[in-house]
Design goal:
Length: 98
């Protein structure tokens, strides 16, 4: 894909330090780490869900024309539940920080 060397990292860090300032840098780093962790967790959950759906669709299940529709509906409901849980967690953490 692409690679970032030490020199590029130093330049990026210096620009961020100049733009954000040293006072807000730890807060920005924590927020960025939190969002990256959330993104990794969601992508892992999505990967597991897709793999489990792939296991559900097999030639031995027969030719049910509504199978894909039902599986898609089930996935949508699961994602909506997870999204609601994430929103609740985010609002709880915001309340704790205030």
């Amino acid at each position: 894909m692409f690679s970032i060397g030490i020199l590029e990292l130093v330049v990026i860090f210096t620009v961020i330090l100049l733009v954000v300032g040293p006072e807000k840098l730890p807060q920005i780093a924590r927020t960025l780490a939190k969002y990256l962790g959330d993104f990794r967790r969601v992508s892992d959950d999505l990967k597991r869900t897709v793999m489990s759906v792939g296991d559900d669709i097999s030639p031995t299940k027969g030719n049910d024309p509504n199978l894909v529709k039902r599986l898609g509906h089930g996935l949508l409901q699961q994602f909506e539940k997870e999204d609601e849980n994430d929103k609740n967690k985010s609002s709880d953490s915001i309340k704790m920080n205030e």
